[in-house]
Each structure stands twice: as C-alpha cells, then as structure tokens.
Amino acid sequence: MQNFLIFAILILGFIITFQIARASEFVSVIRGEEKTRKQTNKINAALLLVFLIVGMFGVYWTQHTLGDKILKLGTSASDHGILVDRMIKYTLIATGIVFVGTQTLLFWYSFKYQESDKRTVYYFPHNNKLELLWTVVPAIVLTILIGFGIVYWYRITGAAPANAMQIEVTGSQFKWEFRYPGKDGVFGKKYYKNIDEANDNPLGQIWEDAANHDDIYESGQIHLVVGKPVKLIIGAKDVIHSVGLPHFRLKMDAVPGTPTTLWFTPIKTTKDMIKETGNGKFVYEIACDQMCGAGHTGMRGEIIVETQEEFDQWMASQKPKYVQMKEAAAAPAAPAAAAKDSVAAPAPATADSITAAGAAKKDSTAK
Ligand SMILES: [Cu+2]
Fold this sequence. Notes:
Immunoglobulin-like
C-alpha cells in the first residue's frame, strides 16, 4: 500500500511539473518569446546573486554552529598533532581565500554582466599572460602545501625513536585490546589459531615462548607517559578497523594480518586536559575510524596519559596474562575463586593442557 502511494505521488508530481511547463510555454507565446526570455534572464541573474549571499551566509553559519564540535578538542595533545593542526590551518587559509574570491566573482559577475541591450559583448578569446598566471600561482601554492604534507608524513610515519615505549593494539568487533611487552621489552610470539577467549588467551599468545610470560594484557584502556614517545603496533582479528586518536590528531588502520605502526609523543597528561577543557570527566579516546559493523560507534578505547611515576606505579600493579592464567589453573579446588580471574569455568585444569591443546590444533592444521 505504502509503495503504491509513493508511486502515485511520483506520477502526480510528474504530471504537475509537465503541465506547469506546458502552461508557461503557452504564456510565453502569448506575451512574446523575446520578452519572456529577457525576463527569465533577469530573474536568473538575481537568483545567482541570492545564491551567493545565502551560500556565503550558510558557510559562516555552519562554522559558527558546528565549529565548536571540532575546536572543543582543544589544541593538539601530541607533538605530531601540532604539525597536523598547522598544516590544516595553512591549507584552510589558502583554500579559504581562493574559495571566497572565486565564488564571489563567479556569482557577482553573472549578475553584473547579465545580458543588456546597452552593452555589446567584448570578444576575449585568449591571453597567454593570464593563463600562465592562473596556472603557475596555484601550482606554487599547491607545491608548498604538498611539500609540507610530505615532510610531516615522513616524520609521522617514519621510524620511532629508540627509546619509544611499545604497545601492541588489536582491534576486533567491537573492542580494543592492548599488550605491553613487559620487563624484557620483547613481545612474545602469537599465533592466530591460539586465540581462545574461553581459555584466557584473547590475543593467541604462544605460551611456550618465554617472551610471553611477562607480557601485560589490557582491554579497553591503556596508560602512556607524558613526554615519552610511544610506538603503536596495530593489528586486527576480523575486519579492518582504524585506531582514531582525535585529541592527538592521528589515525592508522588496523588490518588483519598486516601490522601497521604509528608513533607520537603525548605532550599533555589527562589531568592537564581536564584543566584545559574544564571537563572533569575528560578522557583521551580511541575511536574506531573505520566503519566495521553494527557496533562500530561503540568501539571505544581510553588512554590515560600520566607522569612516569604514576605510570610505574600502575604498571607495578599489573599482572602478566601468563601469570594470571597459571594462577587460575593452579587453583582448581576453588572454581568459584578461579572463575573471577579466568572467564573459563569448565576450562582445562592446567596451563600445560592449554598449551598442549594449542599445539595439537597447530599439528592438525599442518597436515
Ligand atoms: Cu572497528
């Protein structure tokens, strides 16, 4: 029924438009074609001017109303973000001047130089100087802007400093998971077939690899040190996600099977930002920047930027996943207590049986 109504409305609309067009044609015949054409021309010229004024006001109004939503992020909280902000500013200034200039001339001239009986048309086919000017000037401006961009791009995507803290970031529908390499500074090996949420191995760490034994696993939230470079090693378990860091002005795709990296130095602590924004609940956000499914908008992670002392204190309170798992496995007599730390209720009794199961799985796929 609804479809029929929509169809009927469309048909009626078509008939009405057709009839109006026909009626105006008859009117123009009665009035005289030439006169009508001139009149329409005048109306169109005036409408172009109206379009310019309304359009320019629209541009101003959108900035005025929505600009806050962007600017509320405050000044950038990372060193790279300052470069990005600077680049956006210069680009907006250059394109803004060109936009206002060209649009004003385009619509104003259409109005001012509309058809007139008092004026003969000046035939102006070609001018080398002008062509050179409007080719060379934009080329120079664009080269400068792109040059800036390339230099910044290499700085942002280039190798991280040797003293950078490393954090592995893994996206999946619909959450962020993190891993710190622990005291040895080395990430243990992982294998995607080892991913086993039920047995407390969400990243698929290979427990036989001793480098895994001190790796710290975090879900949803990470801690960074202010003024200390951090390198993110980014991956995904299912589809393509993207690590979006609006306050740091950075983003990088999280691709299954192809690790990507991103490094930056946070320059303001969370406390600094609370003071700066006046928002007591301020928290740095990791937003998924790649449409990844139904829960995409809720795929949120949090970053706490703090001083080295605060970070060390927090890190000292963290237990490696391996230790957590061992402890849960060593306490089979008290399943209620174990269930608190480990998601797995009917899980294998020992860590050894978990690794054995993982190894068996690998063997079966190797055949
Ligand atoms: Cu996502």
